[in-house]
Fold Aminotransferase class I/classII large domain-containing protein.
Amino acid sequence: MTANVSADQKLDDVTSEAPKASNSREASENEKNSDIHRQFREAHEGHKAHAGLDPSRASTGVVWTTERAYEHGFLENPKDWANLGQGAPEVEDDIEGCFERPHSINISITGREYGPTAGIKPLRSAVANLYNSHHRQGKESQYTWENVCIVPGGRAGLIRIAAVLNNAYLGFFIPDYTAYNEMLSLFRNFAAIPIPLSREDKYHIHPEKIADEIKRGTSVILTSNPRNPTGKMVSVPELAKIQDMARDRATLIMDEFYSGYNYTTDCDGSVISSADNIKDVNKDDVLIIDGLTKRFRLPGWRVAWIIGPKEFIKAIGSCGSYLDGGCNVPFQEAAVPMLEPGNVRKEMKALQHHFRDKRDYLVSRLQDMGFDLPFVPDSTFYLWLNLEQLPEAINDGLNFFQACLEQKVIVVPGIFFDLNPSRRRDLFDSPCHHFVRVSYGPRMDVLKKGLDGFERILKKYNAFPDKEKKYQSV
């Protein structure tokens, strides 16, 4: 790590630097009397008016929303529902141009045994070769298998990284991926520092913002790119500036799980990655997390990877022995042939065309409902939808979510993307209070069903369609 602070100093600084929301306000009567608001507060201690030291129950946003959907019958009849909340792509084999996924897995003799907690060497080598082919062409410094650690899913990768971090200020952005909240809450070897992004600036991460954070002592920065939940990309030139600023001064943890869902290069199969800008793979403090979950559409396999300097990877691999035990061997062996660079390029091209079409359909339907979308997502399969101009009964994320449940539709309330590990901020002060994340990851028929549910909600509250009125998103 590039900066150390004492435990006492961290505690004092974090306590004194608690952010004060600029839009602090009293809850409306509608919100006070809302069953879903009360249920949320009971489950998430940090959003009670007087937060306790520990939550009574912790869960990610998708898990919590799914639990509420179970209470409305989702578990018994999932096919009757439109799940636009789950952060997963469609897994069927009917996307034109994509390779067919395995329907059975061969289990070798080695697959019956414990595997290395850093992953099997053939898969580590295949990942290194993929990144060298797509992001390190012509560069002197190349990845080897020793720069790769295989982990059982992205969350496990984050937990492993957190376990090996030194005492440091760790900067994270608001809004961002819901599961970061648990990672930032569980560990005490670093102080988590929130970095709010500007709604007016479309939640963009400017290099200047990174420079300011480094100047105030932030020595670890965690972020998703492409951005979850806003669907925006930090481009390669801006990434290069950020990495140049951080080099020898801060460690970058880059969550690139949505890197394949890139619509900024006309769906040519290009993948945006910070690996393009690394000078020395063993000296640049950049840890990249990705895997089969999103861009290979295999979330059930739980096969992911971390790429970084050998020294980091060795520690991350070792801590798997007491954290998660490592990734299952048969699925690692089955993953190796999938990572041939030429096939991956074709796969990404087909993926991008298919999901861009779904994005365009989603945007068109929302605009027909009266929503004004100041920007169209240029990556991922998410849209960050602002509800503020809707009728009061449904103009915040939790109440709109509740209305969706009644129509057998699932979305994720924006509050879950307001990472709040120190539990200092009240629900109604959150900059994410009036938002929901809408996923266009599911099949087109599911997406259509979900948007039909949106229309029914707006009609029920006399809010659709009014050509003279626009509902603004973001």
Residues 1-23, 50-57 have pLDDT under 50 and may be disordered. The chain is about 35% helix and 10% strand.
